[in-house]
Design brief:
Elements: H1 4-17, E1 23-28, E2 51-55, E3 58-63, E4 66-71, E5 76-81, E6 99-105, E7 109-115, E8 123-127, H2 134-137, H3 150-157, H4 164-169, H5 179-188, H6 202-223, H7 231-238, E9 257-261, E10 264-268, H8 270-274
Antiparallel strand pairs: 1-6, 2-3, 3-4, 4-8, 5-7, 6-7, 9-10
Helix pairs in contact: 1-6, 5-6
Length: 279
Amino acid sequence: MPESPEVEALTRFLAREASGREICGVDVLEFRSVKTRSAPPAEIVGRTVTGAARHGKHVELLLGDKSLVVSLGRHGWIRWLGADSRGSDTEVPADAPPALASFHLSDDVALEVTDAGSWVSLGLFVVGSADEVPAIAKLGPDPAHDDFTRAQFDAALGGRRKQIKAILQEQESLAGIGNAYSDEILHIARQSPVTPAAALDPAATDRLFDATVSTVREAIEARGGVPIDQLKAQKVAAMRVHGRAGEACPVCGDTILDLTFSGTSAQYCPTCQNGGVPI
């Protein structure tokens, strides 16, 4: 699942490399990806990209008084085919995710939006403003932003009985965090993923806030300058516990365990996060 650090790196790349290029053509291969049927992607042909912005896990290409918003969903991404060595996929591997739509830009550059899932989770929106996309309009505060505050974090937790891993992934509460970084945050905060927010004491809440902000911002810094076709691999390589069930915890050496609950999964260290007891 794309999360804010990788989506931020992708957005910065697009802002740098796509800005100033004209959209010369659009090919939609999977019409289920188009969410604004009254404003299809073909409407943006002839427009010039003026920048890019990130909204949680969504990418916005700015096109004057219109925007193309790509909602990456669970398995979506944007592939850059062109001349820049820091992001190009000039030869797409045979096992690469299929393109759902292609946007042809000036100077023989193309953007392909892809989805690696077994069902289409990626969405394309042509809108006058990003907040016309329902999921963006509902986004909570983003821990990656400099103006993110402790008060916003406390409001997201709100003494709720919901498990904190679920709250970290809930886009209406905190924007941009998914399954992987929520595992990393909880490991750094030394907190069980199934603890209800209402059960956190002040010290645990302090640790969780600090871990949330530092994990997201340090990952954004680490992904800076990484070619966009290598961001997923860099993310996987950087994980401490996520995706590492059966391996040794890098802090205490205990075995990282896998947990499936409430329709999701988590990887955690029993010693660091649950007093040595498997959940």
